[in-house]
Design brief:
The chain has two domains: 131 residues, no CATH class; 188 residues, Rossmann fold (3-Layer(aba) Sandwich). It contains ten helices and 15 strands. It starts with 5 loop residues before the first strand and ends with a strand. S-adenosylmethionine binds next to helix 6.
Length: 354
């Protein structure tokens, strides 16, 4: 423990609601968490000398669940006793330990490492990881703990077979599969523009086979030579022609399991769209990263969508794909449809076809 760590004995708590109690903190104590920095406080809480927690608890959880949860929020401490008794009348001594941060990222990481062995649950470890993550990557935001979609083993095994060694695309691919599941009931044709190695095509085809009427088809459009030429004025500097290239043989092999419902149309978008000019579409996944092929895909497919059909643009909310966003916004403004900006970064349109 660092030399200037300090215990503060708390004055009498007053009850607010349920197990929740509050103590006003002395002026000389450091400020706690705030809306902009929800994990800023390093305070640890001790009840008769025994550490309790977790810290940074939601105030509603402190009140409803108690069990030692607490929150050092601004100039106040919200706390609950460890065992359902009243923190204002159980006669126990409550002390806060404030350990000043070492300077810099390395100091924060050392502090975190020191605390790991005292953490008792996955949730507490998640909170520590969140705090460290926020410090290392200040602009990025960690999402909720305990989301059950990570427990779907069958989805996870499909995701992992196209494994890129991380789970960054997990939420987007999950969304693709869920929306495809919704669209099968329309009994229209499915399409994907931008296939790469076939990861999302695999999930869409699997959904068609598991839940769709027999005979439904998935049409796949890709150059199989990577991206076309980015426009420097529309697409920024991130992409280069030929990025994301995967060969047709590799993709056919990856999708062999679903070969009876998949039709592949190799070529530059939009040159092969005429192959499906007479179809009506229930689901179109557009994932080509650039302005021009996104625009061309929207122009072709939108007027062939069934009412209630799904158009999902993978690239809509990403700084690396400004052209895809412009193509979506310009097009859907002109036909007066709403783009739903999903927290995954995807842009979703449920076609109403006015
Ligand atoms: C991001 S990758 C697709 C990823 C895939 N949907 C997935 O999630 O696994 C983009 C794909 O778009 C294709 N592409 C980009 N521009 C194209 C164009 N103008 N014509 C045809 N294909 C294009 C690339 O070849 C690449 O396979």
């Amino acid at each position: 423990m660092k030399k200037d760590a300090r215990f503060w004995r708390l004055s009498q708590a007053r009850q607010i609601s349920g197990f929740g109690h509050v103590v006003d903190l002395p002026d000389e104590m450091p400020d706690g968490d705030s809306i902009g920095s929800p994990n800023a406080s390093t305070a640890r809480l001790f009840e008769n000398g025994r550490e309790i927690g977790p810290a940074h608890a939601l105030h509603s959880d402190i009140e409803a669940l108690g069990q030692g949860r607490f929150s050092h929020w601004g100039r106040q401490l919200y706390l609950s006793a460890s065992d359902g008794t009243s923190a204002s009348s159980n006669g126990r001594v409550y002390e806060l330990l404030i350990e000043p941060e070492e300077e810099g990222v390395a100091g924060v990481l050392r502090d975190g490492a020191d605390r790991v062995s005292a953490l008792q649950s996955d949730y507490e470890r998640f909170e520590l990881a969140e705090r460290l993550f926020n410090i290392l990557v200040p602009g990025a935001k960690v999402s909720e703990f305990g989301r059950t979609y990570f427990e779907d083993q069958s989805f996870a095994s499909v995701y992992e077979r196209f494994g890129e060694g991380n789970y960054r695309a997990y939420d987007r691919r999950w969304t693709v599969a869920q929306l495809a599941r919704h669209a099968v009931s329309l009994e229209g044709t499915f399409a994907e523009c931008g296939v790469y190695r076939g990861a999302t095509a695999y999930l869409i085809a699997r959904t068609l086979k598991l839940y769709g009427a027999s005979g439904l088809k998935l049409h796949l459009f890709d150059s199989f030579s990577g991206l076309s030429n980015p426009s420097s004025s529309m697409d920024g500097q991130y992409w280069r022609a030929g990025d994301m290239a995967a060969g047709l043989d590799e993709v056919r092999a990856n999708l062999a399991e679903w070969s009876d419902c998949i039709i592949i149309h190799p070529g530059w978008i939009p040159s092969r769209f005429s192959d499906v000019a007479t179809e009506r579409f229930a689901f179109v996944h557009i994932d080509v990263d650039l302005f021009q092929p996104t625009h061309d895909s929207l122009v072709f497919f939108y007027e062939r969508m069934l009412p209630g059909g799904v158009i999902l643009c993978d690239d809509y909310g990403f700084a690396s794909c400004p052209g895809a966003r412009t193509a979506m916004e310009d097009f859907f403004e002109s036909v007066r449809e709403t783009i739903i900006h999903l927290p995954t970064g995807q842009g979703l349109v449920i076609v109403n076809g006015r």
